Amino acid sequence: MIKMIMARSRMRRIGMAWQKGLIKKMRLHSYSSKVIMSPPLVSLDLPDVWTHNSSHDHSLPPPVCSYQRSATVIDGKSIAEGIRSSIAGEVKRMKDSIGKVPGLAVILVGQRRDSQTYVHNKIKACEEAGIKSVVSLFPDDCTEDEVLDALSNFNEDISIHGILVQLPLPQHLDEGKILDAVCLEKDVDGIHPVNMGNLAMRGREPLSISCTAKGCIELLIRSGVKIMGKNAVVIGRSNIVGLPTSLLLQRHHATVSIIHAFTENPERITNKADIVVTAAGVPNLVRGSWLKPGAVVLDVGTCPVEDASCEFGYRLVGDVCYEEAVGLVSAITPVPGGVGPMTIAMLLSNTLDTARRAYDFT
């Protein structure tokens, strides 16, 4: 505990020093610095570096808990299969009616094995649903212009209705610039600033919503979990998962708190939540003591942990210590087999919707 407090204190000191330095530079170029004291928002951005300490160690035995129950395991794989089957039926109806099918383009940069696996699974899902798919592969050392040229071609291709840039990108590429180049109407990942802004604003409807965020809400609804009026905690604030999930929960009238690497007393805040969605990417970050008895937990984290007994020498674990949580909460998603399959199903759903708009097909 002392080490954790010291580490967080050090992170804040580094963050404050970095922030002050950048703010000072930004003010030199700000015409409103004498009128408005608030700095540009981008100057406040700090990387979320989660402190990995002994309390997150997956090898620790679970603490003794007097509250024991058998949680419902939310089978995301089974739910996703049902959704994908319905999508395949709609794609067939579209093809039979107008002779057209939805088209998805994926851009993959580099040789990351996890990214290659994710793309493979997405393409396979497209084939099973009857959706056209195209993949553009680039080496790690490709130029930004090469990626932008591919995006431009897909933007202009009328047979492509959805474009997905597989993240993360190599550090030498400007992720924001590349994602902004995706045509708004083809942003099936829901991370275009206009889509994100419309998600945040009441009375607005984004063209597409983040696949993972949309999948999480779909899991809650299909599992009969009440969202309106409930206290929800989202752990992690990434643009692709944490932020859109928190916004979407608010649109469903939950009271939402966001936990990030600089949050003080995250355990105390999370322990009050009726719904917990965690996407920090830290193995076993969330222990049983973090969770309120009877809470519903959606674990988006997918982390490889070395395990010699497994076929490939590792196993996948989530952000939540599953063994501790399963006897405490009312419902939980497993890793793997929980949120992951739903993300792919929502990608297919978003691609189908963009094609429907393009062809005015109902």
Q: Could you please describe the fold and organization of this structure?
A:
This protein has 362 residues and is an alpha/beta fold. It contains eleven helices and eleven strands. β2, α3 (113-129) and β3 (132-138) form a beta-alpha-beta unit. The N and C termini lie far apart (57 Å). Mean pLDDT is 87; it is low at 1-8, 10-33 and 53-66.
Short synopsis of the structure:
This protein has helices spanning 2-28, 76-98, 113-129, 144-156, 175-180, 193-200, 211-222, 242-251, 266-270, 322-325, 339-359; strands spanning 72-73, 103-109, 132-138, 162-165, 231-235, 255-259, 275-278, 296-299, 303-306, 314-317, 331-332. The protein has 362 residues and is an alpha/beta fold. α3 packs across α11.
Question: What is the strand and helix layout of this fold?
Answer:
Blueprint: H1 2-28, E1 72-73, H2 76-98, E2 103-109, H3 113-129, E3 132-138, H4 144-156, E4 162-165, H5 175-180, H6 193-200, H7 211-222, E5 231-235, H8 242-251, E6 255-259, H9 266-270, E7 275-278, E8 296-299, E9 303-306, E10 314-317, H10 322-325, E11 331-332, H11 339-359
Parallel strand pairs: 1-11, 2-3, 2-4, 5-6, 5-7, 7-8, 8-11
Antiparallel strand pairs: 9-10
Instruction: Round the Cα radius of gyration to an integer and report it.
Output: 22 Å
Kindly state the number of beta strands.
11
Shape: globular
- What's the total helix number? 11
How are helices and strands ordered from N to C? HEHEHEHEHHHEHEHEEEEHEH
Uncertain residue segments: 1-8, 10-33, 53-66
Main beta-sheet annotation = 6 strands, parallel
Describe the strand arrangement of the main beta sheet, using strand numbers.
1-11-8-7-5-6
In terms of structural class, how would the helical and strand content be classed? alpha/beta
Helix content: 40-55%
How far is the first residue's CA from the last residue's CA? Answer: 57 Å
| Beta-strand residue fraction | 5-15%
State mean pLDDT (0 to 100 scale): 87
